[in-house]
Amino acid sequence: MFRTVCAPSIARVTDRPAQTDRPPGLLPARLRATWDVIRDKGPSQLQFWFIALGIGIASGYLAVGFMLSISTLQTFLYGTDDPRMLHSFVVNLPWWWILLLPAAGGLLVGFILTRFTPDGRVRGVAEVIEGAALREGRVERRAGLASIFASLTTLSTGGSTGREGPVVHMVGLIAGWVSNKINADGVTGRELLGCAVAAGVAASFNAPLAGALFALEVVLRHFAVHAFAPITIAAVSGSVVSRIHFGDVTEFRLPADGTMAFYAELPAFAILGLTSGLVAVVLMRSVFVAEDFGTAVQRRFVIPAMARPAVSGLMLGALAIFFPHIIGVGYETTSAALSGNLILHEAMVFAAIKVFAVAVTMGGRMGGGIFSPALMIGALTGLAFGLLATGIFPDMSGSETVYALAGMGAVAAAVLGAPISTTLIVFEMTGDWQTGIAVMVAVGSATALSSRLVARSFFLEQLKRRGIHLAAGPQRYLLATIRVSSVLKAPEHPKAPKEDRIRRAVNEALFVDPSDTLEKAIPLFERSNSDFLAVVRLKDEGPPEIVGVVLYVDALRVFNRALAETAAEEHA
């Protein structure tokens, strides 16, 4: 992927002029010349690593800044000294403040999204995955910036989502800016995006190893060796930035007596994994049902787009009066579940209410991500399962908190469709590596089940609902990246059919528009068994204008080349 740049000859050290004798402006001139070479010919491997380091540091500071902004606003709006203990503090606030604050936040979110996005939707991880696959590593800039402020408002005023979605898209903007500055091709642009995502995730969760694997497994969706080094550099630098500001601490603390009966308990963890997979599917589908229901209600009662998040915020506020644990990312409740400080009834009810709250927040088109809620719901699910299992088989069971840890990883892995990176995130967030086998068994069975019920992950299912089929693999989504105009032949081209055949094809509806992609053309080829399609522009009046033809053999040739390039990138 790297294009090595030949360096100019360098004089012997003894022949160099002293630093004080260097003509003014020589160093800036050399830097400009180096930048021009990078922009015109691409970075060398060493230069790319330095770029990855810079992106990692910048992404780390953006992630830290986003987290600090949420904490500062929550402290101001809710009056708490420790935003991590928000649940306990909200209990003592006036009911009307709990009710109205999320609604006010939703109103501001609605204004931001309707004013600065074309469709009123928040951008997140799904759009970053789309950018990596279809846009050469670039993400939307204007809508992305609006989504950052919308998510910041949502999380600060009580929205029941997480911070990782906006962080991933936010750092993707940095990668896109750098890619545009150096005129990066698709391979380089995707790897720069992977570097930014790895650093952002590593800084958010103090998990450098998981951040690097998250970028490879979820965003790039391959483990090419040439991408590993720069992504690792970026992830480590992002994590270092986080530790400078927050210290080398784990996100959650587990009780010291968390144990398991090991081999005798492994079947129970497999069953927990299946249960967690079903819970993850319920969570994902609840969000999609809420999205469709909200759209139907909005159309039925002609509700302005700006008011939709406000209505959702009002619903959340009403729910938070009775269940304040739904406010924010829910780390206090997650910690309570991992510590075993909840009873069976509380764990089950809190999990169900949290699923409903996440569906209301995301279905109402407020901001935030789904990973942190999945961690909380998974920990509650695992604790409830563990309390039942240890109660029924006390002589064959260890601690119920191990089940909470395994459930947390299993639900989150099924939602993200990322068993490897999610397992590592759980380990790095808790610092507990002794129960690794239990977590791996639960994660494996959860993802195996959920991937059969949704398009592998929440994000890929989101894209599938918009007609973007990335889960089907490059043989499906690459067709949508190749426009008919790129393989168009003029009617007078020697290989083009005669004019009467072209007009006959138009009369038989065997035609496409120049702006269409091969995703539309290839199925039409296969249904008609034709060796060409007419390319026309339809007019409001009169016959369609014949622009040219696209030959089946040309379409297949371009498609095969795209597949080969993708395979070369993934297996380099």
UniProtKB/TrEMBL annotation:
<feature type="transmembrane region" description="Helical">
    <location>
        <begin position="227"/>
        <end position="246"/>
    </location>
</feature>
<keyword id="KW-1133">Transmembrane helix</keyword>
<feature type="transmembrane region" description="Helical">
    <location>
        <begin position="370"/>
        <end position="390"/>
    </location>
</feature>
<protein>
    <submittedName>
        <fullName>ClcA protein</fullName>
    </submittedName>
</protein>
<dbReference type="InterPro" id="IPR001807">
    <property type="entry name" value="ClC"/>
</dbReference>
<keyword id="KW-0406">Ion transport</keyword>
<keyword id="KW-0868">Chloride</keyword>
<keyword id="KW-0813">Transport</keyword>
<dbReference type="GO" id="GO:0005254">
    <property type="term" value="F:chloride channel activity"/>
</dbReference>
<feature type="transmembrane region" description="Helical">
    <location>
        <begin position="402"/>
        <end position="427"/>
    </location>
</feature>
<dbReference type="GO" id="GO:0034707">
    <property type="term" value="C:chloride channel complex"/>
</dbReference>
<keyword id="KW-0472">Membrane</keyword>
<keyword id="KW-0129">CBS domain</keyword>
<keyword id="KW-0812">Transmembrane</keyword>
<feature type="transmembrane region" description="Helical">
    <location>
        <begin position="433"/>
        <end position="455"/>
    </location>
</feature>
<feature type="transmembrane region" description="Helical">
    <location>
        <begin position="343"/>
        <end position="364"/>
    </location>
</feature>
<feature type="transmembrane region" description="Helical">
    <location>
        <begin position="192"/>
        <end position="215"/>
    </location>
</feature>
<keyword id="KW-0869">Chloride channel</keyword>
<dbReference type="Pfam" id="PF00654">
    <property type="entry name" value="Voltage_CLC"/>
</dbReference>
<dbReference type="InterPro" id="IPR014743">
    <property type="entry name" value="Cl-channel_core"/>
</dbReference>
<feature type="transmembrane region" description="Helical">
    <location>
        <begin position="93"/>
        <end position="113"/>
    </location>
</feature>
<keyword id="KW-0407">Ion channel</keyword>
<dbReference type="InterPro" id="IPR050368">
    <property type="entry name" value="ClC-type_chloride_channel"/>
</dbReference>
<feature type="transmembrane region" description="Helical">
    <location>
        <begin position="48"/>
        <end position="73"/>
    </location>
</feature>
<feature type="domain" description="CBS">
    <location>
        <begin position="502"/>
        <end position="565"/>
    </location>
</feature>
<feature type="transmembrane region" description="Helical">
    <location>
        <begin position="310"/>
        <end position="331"/>
    </location>
</feature>
<dbReference type="InterPro" id="IPR000644">
    <property type="entry name" value="CBS_dom"/>
</dbReference>
<feature type="transmembrane region" description="Helical">
    <location>
        <begin position="266"/>
        <end position="290"/>
    </location>
</feature>
